[in-house]
Amino acid sequence: MQEQKLKILFFGDIVGKAGRYAVRDFLADKSSDIDFVVANVENASHGFGLTEKNYNELSEYGIDCMTSGNHIWDKKEILNYIDDAERLIRPINYPEAQGRGYGIFETPKGKIAVINALGRNFMPVFDSPRYPIEKVVETVKQETKVILIDFHAEASAEKMCYAKYFSQFGVSALIGTHTHVQTADERIFDGQTAYITDVGYCGDYESIIGMDYESSLSHILTMLPSRFEVANSGSAVINAVTVTVDAETGKAEEINRINIKTVLQE
After folding, report:
1. Up-side HSE of residue 88: CA atoms within 13 Å toward CB?
2. 8 A C-beta contact, residue 129 and residue 93
3. Number of alpha carbons in the 13 Å side-chain half-sphere of residue 49
4. Are 54 and 48 a contacting pair, CB within 8 Å?
5. Residue 1: its pLDDT value, please?
6. Distances from the Cα of 41 to the Cαs of 51, 89, 142, 157, in angstroms?
């Protein structure tokens, strides 16, 4: 039987219009060997949340699955469409929320399960991600061995520890999101699970993690409540990773970082 290598492209947190357009342009020229595209979209609409309009735009760009995090509820209209948004998942440890915490998607190389979860260290109080992830992993294994987790969390140790823990459950990849700063620690745990502490962000290059410098500085210097504005200098950064997985065994074989600067095309 011919080996099936499934190649996943995962974009870091998309921030505002600069992030959306940068991802649009990148996907227009993406390699033909990419089988499945995932992006974290919790900051895609003016830096906070996701509108239905932007959900539809990102779908048209070629994103197959959209993950999120603690900001997914910032645009209240999300409650009007999340149940029908087949490509969008919200963190699984919101147990009573609308939407779904995982999804099983078709790819040219078979099915892939994607789970979204929130960490708890230095984050608002949430249910533990451990038990819902364990339960879902055992469930989706009946359909596919290719399982990816977007672990949206602050603490590096929490992300890393869960990656090694879930390698014992056969998870193919655990990709960290949330800090918007790409780390240089990509690796594969136990010959099974591709990992990076944080994949980074897609947004304005001349910014503070996607936000305007002046509004960010004002908050840092005064610590007074202030409105953060999304930066828009005309240049952008793309932070992402590609992960190659054996579609038959679910074992990750390779993970590579992408970190490029680009000029936006309107």
Report:
1. 27
2. yes
3. 12
4. no
5. 44
6. 10, 10, 28, 24
pLDDT digits 0-9 by tens, 57-101: 999 999 999 999 999 999 999 999 999 999 999 999 998 899 999
Q: What is the pLDDT of residue 241?
A: 98
Is the Cβ–Cβ distance between 100 and 90 less than 8 Å? yes
Instruction: Provide the sign of the torsion angle of the four alpha carbons 257, 180, 63, 249, taken in this order.
Output: positive
* Tokens found for residue 191: 């010959």
Residues of the chain predicted below pLDDT 70 = 1-2, 266
* Residue 21 three-state SS: helix
pTM of the entire predicted model: 0.96
How much is the pLDDT for 2?
54
CB proximity list for 253: less than 8 A, separation 6 or greater: 5, 188, 244, 245, 246
Beta carbons within 10 angstroms of residue 5's beta carbon: 15
pLDDT at 66: 98
Range 5-263: architecture per CATH? 4-Layer Sandwich (3.60)
Tokens of 24: 């649009």
| 46 given a catalytic annotation | no
User: Which member of 46, 71, 178, 219 is catalytic?
Assistant: 71
Cβ count near 228 (within 10 Å) = 17
